[in-house]
Specification:
Strands 1, 2, 3, 4, 5 and 6 form a six-stranded antiparallel sheet that branches. This protein has a three-stranded antiparallel sheet with strand order 7-9-10, covered by helices on one side. Strands 8-11 form a two-stranded antiparallel sheet. It is built from eleven helices and eleven strands. The chain is an alpha+beta fold. Strand 2 and strand 3 form a beta hairpin. It holds the Pfam family APH.
Length: 358
């Protein structure tokens, strides 16, 4: 967990982000699936940030996702994720979220000792067909659908609580200032200056963020975690990956979703407004959930803060795990252009980005 006096290195924000694991092979994943769940199939690895995740094709017996958690992940926090997914299924069964399956003994979080002598927690989750949104495009109407789903998911989580829901998560922008010691890992050029500006501006709005409404939220509604189908009238087939869920500010959850709808390619000659596409998401969101005026004012700063979180964590982790560098930095390049754009705006201009424009 993070602490106010954190200094990096040697104290990382979360061991699962900084400690290496011994990856398991697809053959071992297939063995785990058969022994724990009675599922015989062919495994294919997904690229992931911290765990071992496999697509498991069992033919006519179905398709699944097998997740073998990082050995440092807390059992309580994994139980929180499972309980949250089951709660959403109960409260809003129409929402396209994955279903989680118990093993042959009925356990949702069985523990195995891998061939690398690590004790690791396993989950089996339903596979949702479709294309990750970060691999395709979207229309304004489809982005409205994304916003509607985010609001409905918030509503379904509103009454949920768990002993581990207050965990301090490195990816929760609420704790951005605790990552400031990572600034040395950002290249020492204009990019470091952009991140420093984001940190300074976040410090100014932090008192307002502390007053904002909070609840358990997905906290990672990004385009990699939305599985879509252009032939589906609702557009989104699935909302996946509850690994960053946490009790945080409602405005933080919305800002993360909006930041992830910013264009991947930014042409300075014709792009004057990074929030053109994100506002479509916000319009859909406001059809089913409310935001207070102060929350609207803060969301652009929180989006900028999320860009800074991503820059700090990914630059740091790319140095720790150079073999996984391309995956870790896959969204960081676009983020530099976004941070530069924010850097060129005044504080008042940032405050006005959403108010009166939806």
């Amino acid at each position: 967990m993070l602490h106010d006096n954190i200094h990096l290195p040697p104290r990382p924000p979360a061991p699962e982000l900084s400690e290496a694991r011994r990856p398991i092979s697809k053959a071992e994943a297939e063995t785990i699936a058969e022994q724990l769940y009675g599922k015989r199939g062919s495994a294919k690895r997904f690229e992931t940030e911290k765990d071992d995740t496999f697509f498991l094709d069992c033919g006519e017996n179905g398709q699944f996702v097998l997740k073998v958690a990082h050995p440092s992940e807390s059992l309580d926090e994994l139980d929180f994720q499972v309980a949250l997914m089951r709660h959403v299924e109960l409260r809003a069964p129409a929402l396209p979220t994955p279903r989680i399956f118990g093993d042959l003994q009925g356990q949702f979080l069985p523990v195995v000792t891998t061939s690398g002598a690590e004790r690791r927690v396993v989950r089996l989750i339903s596979f949702i067909r479709g294309t990750p949104l970060d691999k395709t495009n979207s229309t304004a109407a489809q982005r409205v659908c994304v916003g509607e789903l985010l609001a409905k998911l918030r509503n379904a989580m509103a009454d949920f609580s768990h002993p581990a829901d207050g965990r301090e998560l490195a990816w929760d922008v609420t704790h951005l200032l605790k990552l400031s010691d990572m600034l040395d890992h950002v290249p020492n050029d204009e990019r470091r200056a952009w991140v420093k500006t984001a940190l300074d501006r976040f410090a100014e709005i932090k008192p307002g963020l502390n007053r904002c409404r909070r609840q358990v939220l997905h906290n990672d509604f990004n385009t990699s975690n939305l599985v879509v189908d252009h032939s589906n009238p609702q557009f989104v087939n699935g909302i996946i990956d509850f690994g960053d869920a946490v009790r945080t500010a409602i405005a933080v959850d919305v800002s993360t979703a909006l930041m992830n709808q910013m264009p991947k390619q930014l042409d300075d000659t014709n792009r004057q407004d990074l929030f053109l596409e994100p506002r479509d998401v916000l319009r859909g969101y406001l059809r089913h959930a409310d935001l207070e005026h102060e929350e609207l004012l803060l969301i652009p700063f929180l989006a900028m803060g999320r860009l800074a979180v991503r820059a700090l964590l990914t630059c740091w982790r790319a140095q720790l795990f150079p073999e996984n560098r391309s995956y870790i930095l896959r969204h960081t390049q676009a983020g530099w252009a976004h941070l530069r754009w924010f850097n060129n705006l005044s504080t008042n201009q940032i405050s006005d980005l959403l108010t009166g424009r939806i």
